[in-house]
Amino acid sequence: RPRPAAERVPPAAPPSSASPGPWGRLTISPLVISPPLELVSADWGGWPPGPARWHFPGVSREEVEAFLLAAGMARDRVTAVLATARPDADTGGLVATPDPELIRGLTPEIRSRLYSLLAKSTRNYDQSNAFRFFGSAPDPWLHGSLMSPESRRLVEPLIYQDGEFLSFSDVELVRSQVRDPAERQRIAKTLLRQSTMLVTLEVSDPSEIGGLAEYWGRGGRRTDIRPLLESLADAEPGRSIDIVHLLPTFARNHLYRYPKISTADLNKPLLANCLWSSLNFFRAVPDDRFLDVLTALDTLRRDYVVVESDFQLGDIVALLDEEGVVFHVAVYVADGLVFSKNGRSTVAPWILMPLERLKAYYRARAASPRLIYHRPNELS
Hints:
alpha+beta, 17 strands
């Protein structure tokens, strides 16, 4: 069924050339996309709304105090936070409700260190589900958005650096100060922006067509891809094409787009996630059996072979944490770029991104994930 396309924002950096390889000569242009406004809820963040709470599971008051001091908080502020702390019977730790002005007064450096720890517990919903944007300056994230200048002045000081990504977690501060639901919706649309990339292939030498058709036509599509490549080679020199037109049907129909949920989807075990997206990469009609995580992982073990090098279009990259648990999968496209859906939310799009950036995106789950590449048995 149709899925709404993303709003595209002009790139913040010039195009660059990919490394040469069997995929041909690729040009990569940065792109920022944002979900259509009708997919964005005005009631974003944790639920129900209320004062910000910091959960410290399984630790003592003395350990919380030591951590807050190590994060760089002044002692009087640490004392103020601890004054609001109460025992949390569910976790055997503490839960604090710090004053909003104290939270707003945190420096970006302290906020980053503190929230990186809070994000390790799913009880800290706003930190563990922080809005994230690749980069080191907020302007590419916030520039030209629909939010008002007043809202930007409210949001921008609360943004902090988390590795290679900027993050925003202080949802309750903003919700308490922005009463207009339409403005909250516009703020959320801005914070949901994602950085991705447009990738184009240049074909100018007819002798390249055989190899390019072999690479981009995997999955029984060589005879479909070859005429398009031939038409490019016959055109004027320097003619290029967006690689979205060279991808299988599933990827072509989903890239840069967002899930559109129907009532029928509510009866499924999960919404579209990374396993479902990766295992359906070569399928014209998606197989919803892969919404079941156990079925999907069993299929990956049974119908795929592990490969160590010479990665090709359609290979599935699994990211494993320190315990060997698969926490994300994506599809290899070319030159270290992957096709990925980061999360099963309806406002998480299908995008292209470098594999190294994907690892940084999930660094809270694993600082140095193990990568295992899988290839369908029929393509090995």
